[in-house]
Amino acid sequence: MNYTDEQTKYMVDEYTNKPTRITVERLAKELDKTPKSVIGKLSREGVYRRSVYKTKTGETPVTKVELVAELAEALGISPGVLAGLEKAPKNVLKVLKGVSTGE
Predict the structure, then answer these.
(1) Number of structural domains, the chain?
(2) What's the pLDDT tens digit per position in 20-77?
(3) Count of CB atoms within 10 A of residue 50's CB?
(4) How far is 38 from 35, CA to CA, in rounded Å?
(5) Per the domain annotation, does 85 fall within a domain?
(6) How far is the C-alpha of 27 from the C-alpha of 63, rounded, in Å?
(7) 41-44 contacts, C-beta under 8 A, 24 or more apart
(8) Which of 25, 28, 57, 94 has its CA 20 to 30 A from that of 100?
(9) Does the pLDDT value for residue 1 go beyond 60?
(10) Does any domain span residue 11?
(11) How many CB atoms lie within 10 A of CB 89?
(12) Is 58 part of a structural domain of the chain?
């Protein structure tokens, strides 16, 4: 057993109060474990949340293929009809999607 029940409870409480990578690093140091081990244990306990990547503008990243699919849905047509549109610049696809959905 790598972690005692007391250590597990402590880790879960600490991470739940402040779910950041810094907390993971601190717990690893305090418990003389690797950050990977701490993350694994927190994952098995069901409390670890992986950080979500954001773009420079703070948006959740969306691929061109997803934008074309959303555009097709907004227009009520099959995405196959718009084949090749995913090669257009992303900002153009965003404008088209905005126009089609009234955003």
Answers:
(1) 2
(2) 899 999 999 999 999 999 999 999 999 998 877 788 887 888 889 999 998 988 889 9
(3) 7
(4) 5
(5) yes
(6) 36
(7) 41/2, 41/3, 41/8, 41/11, 42/11, 42/12, 42/15
(8) 57
(9) no
(10) yes
(11) 9
(12) no
